[in-house]
Structure formats: C-alpha cells, structure tokens
Amino acid sequence: MTRERIVQAGNRTIAVLEAGDPAGPLVLHNHGGPSSRLEAALFDSPARANGLRFVGVDRPGIGGSDPQPGRSFASWAEDLVLVADALGARRFAVTGWSEGGPWALAAAAYVDPARLVHAASIGGACYGTFGAGWAAQHLGSLDALGGRLALHFRPGFKLMYELLGLSATHFEQSYGKAILKAVNAADRQVLADEEVMRMFLAASRECFRQGADGLVVDATLLYESWPFDMAQVKRPVHFWQGTADTLVPEVINRTVAERTPAAIWHPIEGGGHFIALGNAHDILALAARDLASAAS
Q: Does the predicted model carry a pTM greater than 0.85?
C-alpha cells in the first residue's frame, strides 16, 4: 500500500508518495530521471521487510511538485529537511537512484549529520562532481550529447527532453522497449516482472505531468559544476554501483567514491543500473541499521 501526501513549502507544494511501514523510521528517496515520487512504490516490499517508512519526493517542477525558480542543490537539501519535519521525523536517511544520486549526495553535503544519519547514492548520475561535464568521456553517446546540449545549447537540451517526454507519455510500449535495449541482461531480468515494468513506466510518465521543464532544470544542474565539494564531505556516504551498468558506467561513481573521504563502496558484480531494485533489501537494510543505531 502507498499513500499520497502534499507538503507545504512556503508558497510551494511538494508532492510525496509514502511506501513501506508507516510507523517505521524515515527514508526520503530521491527519484531518478525521468521519474517521480511514484518510484517509491517499487521499494514498498523491501521497505516493509526492513521496517522503514520509505517516501519518494518529487523535485520542483516534476510530477506534482510546484516549480521553484532558482532552485539549487542547497535548496533541495532544505526541502528534504522540510519534508522530514512535516512527516514528524527528527532523524532520517536519504537514498538516491540514478539522477537522484547527486541529490542524495547534496543532502550529505548540506544537512546536519545529527538529522541525516544515512546517505546512499545508487548508480548516481554524477556528471558535474569535479567540474562541468567532467564525466563526458565515460558516457554513452546519447548522455554525452545531452551534456553538451545542457552546457552549450539549452534549447536543444529542452527539445531532447520534450521528445523523451513524448515517448514516455504517449508511446509507452516503445519507451519500455528502448529501456530494455539500453540496459544489460541483469537489468532485463529485473524488468521482466510485468508489475515492476508497469510501475517503472508509471513513474516515468508522471515525471512529465507539467511538461519537460522541471526535468530540464534538474538534469542541467547535474551536468554543471557542482557547488559542493565531495572531498569535503567527511561523513560516511554509501555508493552502490553495478559493475556492468550500461547507463552510468562504474568508473564515474568509483572515481567520486575514491575522492570522498568516508565513502563506503558497494560494487555489485555483473549488476546493472537496476541494482536499486534487485539489491533493494541489502541497500535498505543498511539504512535501517544506521537509523536504529542513531535512535539507541
């Protein structure tokens, strides 16, 4: 079972979807792109098994959350704290999958460790960690093109995402086939579950409820030079990575982890981009452990 909620952020609203155990400690999940808060439904079973209240949060302009002009990594960290407050959680954890990974890392950089007790990035799209477009040499042709457009020709980048939105919202079957073609065998096995594919496509479709603008802003910030330095993040940060990920190659996140002082590296041998689902129980078990330790 999942539960929809709206959180007020001044004159904005933030849409969230609650999954897992409603009485458990809180994990705020940073969805991928294109995706949305609905991604949380994919984690409902492992969240319940680990006794966690698992909440997906739509970033500004995506899904049901209002746009936020001038949004930043720091302002998103503030939004996560605001959501935790609204849900009555003094301490919480964050996870971030794919395009959500950098937003989880931003939380690790900006949020007081007394409140944020666990941070995990799963196959994170860390494309601007060490400067604008630093990871371009490691990306596939489409993502590399996206990075060039984001940094040098914003209208072209917007058109690229508008076309992606058209595919996700009106040509769902073709969109799903394209995803299956782009990932590895381990990922295709995860997506062979029809219910998993259905929920994944629904989360992608919801991303474009307000059009592509929210996602364009979101992705552009990932390609631009990040305003925080992971080398200065001294707290433990978990990096989960499939060694055979065809969407975000291992070398990108391994490099980020190597330069993060207290990084904890979790390679999944032969795993792809969908280790977030295939290994969800192990990922959330560590979050549950840290939340329980902080509460004791």
A: yes
Residue pLDDT, tens place only, 146-171: 899 999 999 999 999 999 999 999 99
Residue 58 Cα to chain centre, angstroms: 10
Instruction: Please give the Cα distance from 22 to 168 (Å, whole number).
Output: 31
Helices 141-152 + 213-223 axis angle, to 10: 100
The pairs formed by 136-143 with CB atoms below 8 angstroms and a separation of 24 or more are 138/249, 138/251, 138/252, 139/249, 139/252, 140/246, 140/247, 143/247
Evaluate whether 288 touches 260 at the Cβ level (below 8 Å): no
pLDDT tens, residue by residue, 218-244:
999 999 999 999 999 999 999 999 999
Would strands 92-97 and 53-57 be described as parallel, antiparallel, or unpaired?
unpaired
Kindly tell me the burial class for residue 172, based on how many C-beta atoms sit within 10 Å of its own C-beta (0-12, 13-18, 19 or more).
middle
DSSP of 109-122: HHS-TTTEEEEEEE
Q: Which of 9, 54, 8 is nearest to 287 (CA)?
A: 54
- Residue-range domains of the chain with CATH: 3-295 (3.40.50.1820)
- CA 214 to each of CA 53, 65, 126, 224: distance values in angstroms, whole numbers, following the listed order: 26, 9, 18, 16
Strands, E, within 21-115: which ranges? 26-30, 53-57, 92-97
**H or E segment to which residue 11 belongs:** none
Give the Cα separation of 62 and 178 in Å (integer). Answer: 22
